[in-house]
Write a structure and sequence with these properties.
With 261 residues, the protein is of the alpha/beta class. It is built from 8 helices and 8 strands, in the order H-E-E-E-H-E-H-H-E-H-E-H-E-H-E-H. It starts with a helix and ends in a 5-residue tail after the last helix.
Length: 261
């Protein structure tokens, strides 16, 4: 029994804390929203700094009571990663309800203004208040569905800010597949990086085919699988937070490995 108590103490010691920054204004979008910041448990020496992942649909990441469609359980995923020596700060940026599609749309909506909000307003606040590793190599972006679309776009168009990205079930069909065309025309991301993207095989043939097309484009451009990117086909995967939370946890070792200098 004593051994079990010690194990539980070690487990709880690896759980982080969730901080809410209320009503953060966005000059870029003329609105306000809370930010949810998951911070790893501080080690005894207290001087550690961490990579940061900026995640879309922030109200779906941690608390089922806040979620509009289920929760990813990101706090549990990060605790799992921490027990394996991988720690990160996650910044959950909630969507704005009716404005969600427009903010995650970089083609006909306000997607570029949204990413300006993330990089020019949110990131400086987070870097000032939390123990971050603020450089590009340790700064990532992640999301699912339309949140995955804008995260993919950010990896290729805002590569000066984001060194890694995760796009779970990205809406590659949106705007007649315009994001795939963006990647086809984009030069190789300078300075390298890590891209994780996936699809559930129960999400429809079009989604699977577009994901495979993106994979093949990256290979043709000289990106190397398992070094520069990871593509996952989840044979039982559906378009839902429960599937994304499970796959996000499995993606964390790839995303959080120490980048090459």
């Amino acid at each position: 029994m004593l051994g079990l108590h010690r194990l539980l103490r070690r487990w709880h010691a690896r759980k982080g804390r969730l901080v809410v920054l209320p009503s953060v204004p966005s000059p870029e979008l003329d609105n306000r929203r809370d930010l949810y910041i998951y911070v790893p448990a501080a080690p005894a020496r207290g001087d550690s700094r961490y990579p940061v992942i900026y995640m879309q649909d922030g109200q779906n990441l941690f608390d089922p009571a806040q979620s509009f469609a289920g929760t990813w359980g990101v706090d549990e995923a990060l605790s799992w990663a921490s027990r394996r020596g991988l720690d990160a700060i996650v910044v959950g940026i909630p969507n704005m309800g009716d404005a969600r599609i427009a903010e995650y749309d970089p083609f006909m909506g306000t997607g570029d203004r949204y990413l300006d909000f993330v990089t020019h307003t949110v990131k400086p606040i987070v870097d000032a208040q939390f123990p971050t590793l603020p450089d590009r190599r340790h700064t990532g972006i992640a999301g699912s569905s339309m949140g995955g679309l804008i995260s993919l776009y950010a990896f290729f168009r805002y590569s000066e800010s984001f060194g890694f990205a995760a796009a779970l079930s990205p809406s590659l069909w949106f705007a007649d597949g315009a994001l795939v065309d963006v990647v086809a025309r984009a030069p190789r991301v300078p300075g390298g990086g890590r891209l994780y993207f996936d699809i559930g095989m129960r999400e429809g043939q079009q989604s699977v085919a577009l994901g495979r097309r993106l994979r093949d484009l990256l290979l043709a451009k000289g990106y190397e699988g398992e070094r520069d990117f990871r593509w996952v086909e989840d044979k039982d995967g559906v378009h839902h937070e429960s599937a994304w939370g499970r796959r996000f946890r499995e993606a964390l070792p790839f995303l959080l490995r120490e980048p090459a200098a």
